[in-house]
Amino acid sequence: MKYKHIVVVKRGPPENLQVEECDLREPAAREVRVKVLACGVCQPDVQNRYGLSPHAPKVPYEPGSSIVGDVDAVGRGARSAIPGRRVAAWPSIGGYAEYLYLPESRLVPIPSSLDPVEAAPVVLNYVTAYQVLHRRAKVKAGDKVLIIGASGGCGTAFLDLGRLAGLKMYGIASGSKSSILTQFGALPIDYQKDDFVEVIRRAEPDGLDFIFDGMDGNYIDRALPLLRRGGVLVEYANPLSLRRALGNLARTVMVNLLPGGGKMKAYGAGLALFYRKPFLEDWAILFRLLQEGKIQPVISGRFSLLEAARANALLEGGQVAGNLILVAPALLK
Predict the structure, then answer these.
(1) How far apart (Å, rounded) are the C-alpha atoms in residues 150 and 322?
(2) What is the pLDDT of residues 166-212, one digit of tens each?
(3) Among 48, 32, 44, 38, residue whose Cα is nearest residue 106
(4) What is d(CA 236, CA 222) in angstroms, rounded to the nearest whole number?
(5) For the structural domain made of 140-266, what CATH number should be given?
């Protein structure tokens, strides 16, 4: 029996995503075969394809960093995975596929009642936003925050969780996406027309408590003076090169050495590959919030696996608000 998956055959545009077939095999020891129901299409997928990451995989490789699916088969020694159980996983790569093989330890059981399409953004975008808000920033109700890059998959997760936390939110996005921001109670700032520095200085003359930057440092120099004394800017974007990563680290050290003013912190979801406990705790919280209807991911489009190139092209075009999801054919009917 064969199954389809997507392969990046060379660096570059979405056209370099090709559909290939391979043999469906039995899982190895302590391995689980997952039938993929939904996989998020996100910026790390794009950055990896162009090689714009210090950790970009070598080509050819299978993209796809966050999946929801059902356990299809288990290998010898697997203890808790049961065929038919709904699971989520952050494999980092490999999710653009009809089936995915993963170690049992990488799977997170989730309620079978959840819509896989709505659950997929929780795996990466929502856990990133939740950990930045509650583990790095430790926000509290009434805090004044600026979200840089507020309309994408991760940005809308910040808006959703920020609303739940009772934050006063400002968000930078294009004017065409302002309705998404107002939907979550944030004041939109159109980066194409407005000077965000002037807007914030007028609205919050005493300064912001937190700034969350998902744009890889392009706003930092202008944003830092908007913080109140003791305020914090958290940089969570994936650095686009090793040089950029080292530069961001050096800037963080320098800013934090200066007396008074705001401070900087960094966050990287890649820690999930090495330090699982906080991620398991936070995924449990987030999937419960989703089940209770307290969070609602923004889904802008659903595409079949065969349309992976089209979905990536839309994401690169910058016109998408929220999340694009590749889904199993049964979920498109």
Answers:
(1) 9
(2) 999 999 999 999 999 999 999 999 999 999 999 999 999 999 999 99
(3) 32
(4) 17
(5) 3.40.50.720
Q: Mean pLDDT in the chain?
A: 93
Write the single-letter amino acid at 169.
M
Tell whether the torsion through CA atoms of 323, 326, 330 and 333 is positive or negative: positive
Select from 329, 325, 333 the least CA-distant residue to 66: 325
- Do 81 and 57 touch, CB atoms closer than 8 A? no
At 270-284, the pLDDT tens digits run: 766 677 899 999 999
Strands 144-148 and 168-173: parallel
Which residues share a beta bridge with 34? 71, 100
- In CATH terms, 2-122+271-332 corresponds, of 2.40.50.140, 3.30.930.10, 3.90.180.10, 3.10.350.10, to 3.90.180.10
Distance, CA of 287 to CA of 264 (rounded, Å): 29
